[in-house]
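In this section we walk through a basic example: taking a raw amino acid sequence and producing a predicted 3D structure, encoded as C-alpha cells. The instruction is simple. Fold the sequence below.
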Amino acid sequence: MNGKRQDEKAESDRILGQVNSQVGASASRKGDDSDDWAEYWGRRVGRTLGIIFLFVVIYWLYELVTGRG
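The resulting C-alpha cell sequence is shown next.
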C-alpha cells in the first residue's frame, strides 16, 4: 500500500514538474513580438480600437445620464 502511494506521489511530482516547466517557458517571454508582424500590428490595432470603444462608451453614458441620449 505504501509503495503504491509513493509511486503515485512520484508520478504526480513528475507531471507537476512538466507542467511548471512548460508554463514557465511560455510565461517567461517578455512580450517582444518585433519579429512577428501579425502580433505586432494586431496588438496595436486592438489597443487602438479598445481606446476608441472606451471613449464611445463614456460618451454614450454621458448622454444617457444627462438625458440627451
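Looking at the output, two observations stand out. DSSP finds two helices and no strands in the chain. The first helix runs from residue 2 to 27. In the next section we compare this with other chains.
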